[in-house]
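W.,

You were right to be curious about this one. When I first looked at the sequence I had no strong expectations either way, so I just let the prediction run and decided to look at it fresh. Below is the sequence, 110 residues in total, followed by the output.
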Amino acid sequence: MEDEQMEISGNRLTSFFVYLVADCLGGTTVFPKVPRPQGEEWCEVLKCNDEEGNAIELLEVQAKVGNAIFWHNLDPWGRVDELTLHAGTPVENGTKVGLNIWTRERGYRY
């Protein structure tokens, strides 16, 4: 099914993710190829330190209600942007609910 969808609609052009419920420990979204921006103002949205107080060097978005992430998956030439590699960390306890919205390169209807 995924291969068929890719042939018709193309790759994900953009991604939008928002935390709707984030009553949890863990559940962050990590972009391991993107360095975390420096500055304390980012620590409201990003995880800046680990449990031992060490600075986190990579972009890691905290699971908080209302936090949202938007990114382009493809570069201007239509190639996958490797910096968009990301993953959700495990929810250690509690509940996390998120909403994904993707746009595609071409239209797609069932």
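Here's what jumped out at me. The chain has a mean pLDDT of 91. And, maybe more interesting for your project: Residues 11-103 form one domain.

Coffee later to discuss?

I.
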